[in-house]
Specification:
Distance between the termini: 38 Å
CATH class: Alpha Beta
Oligomer: single chain
CATH topology: Thiol Ester Dehydrase, Chain A
Strand content: 25-35%
Largest sheet: 5 strands, antiparallel
Strand order of the largest sheet: 1-3-4-5-2
CATH superfamily: Hotdog Thioesterase
Length: about 160
């Protein structure tokens, strides 16, 4: 799934660059559409696992967000988002962001529902899937520790 959008002055922050929240919103939309396409179900965002900003996006750049499902569980899907900005006058393309967003597929009653497994056909897809499984295990452990009662022993 690929989204492309020109960045105008309405997307600017006080420093004159594109606001990070605008980029995050576009990533969430692209990731959700990739997840919906895979699951063929509505999805909701449950986690922004990471969002790394490598460089600023300038007003006037053409922003492109490429989203792909990299891991699936029973009802969850992880998407990797790669963001680039192109200066249309020079043709220079800059990789500006990488992110991982997690979604849960919903049934007709708004409850989590099963998603099809991800079929990995290349070594790169298998590597991304394995890395996604590791990130999911870390997310679950983080959630378990956050839900522990106050004063409960937490392992480092």
């Amino acid at each position: 799934m690929t989204f492309t959008q020109p960045m105008g002055v309405t997307e600017a922050n006080i420093q004159g660059n594109v606001h990070g929240g605008v980029i995050m919103k576009l990533c969430d939309e692209a990731g959700a559409f990739a997840a919906i396409k895979h699951a063929r179900r509505p999805v909701v965002t449950v986690s922004v696992d990471s969002m790394s900003f490598h460089s600023a996006v300038q007003i006037g750049n053409l922003l492109t967000v490429q989203a792909e499902v990299t891991w699936t569980g029973r009802s969850s899907l992880e998407t990797r988002l790669l963001v680039t900005a192109e200066n249309l006058l020079t043709g220079t393309v800059t990789h500006t962001n990488t992110a991982f967003f997690v979604y849960v597929a919903l049934d007709e009653r708004g409850r989590p529902t099963a998603v099809p497994p991800l079929i990995c056909e290349t070594d790169e897809e298998r590597r991304l899937y394995e890395e996604g499984a590791i990130r999911q295990a870390l997310r679950l452990e983080r959630r378990r520790q956050e839900q522990a009662p106050p004063g409960a022993r937490r392992e480092p």
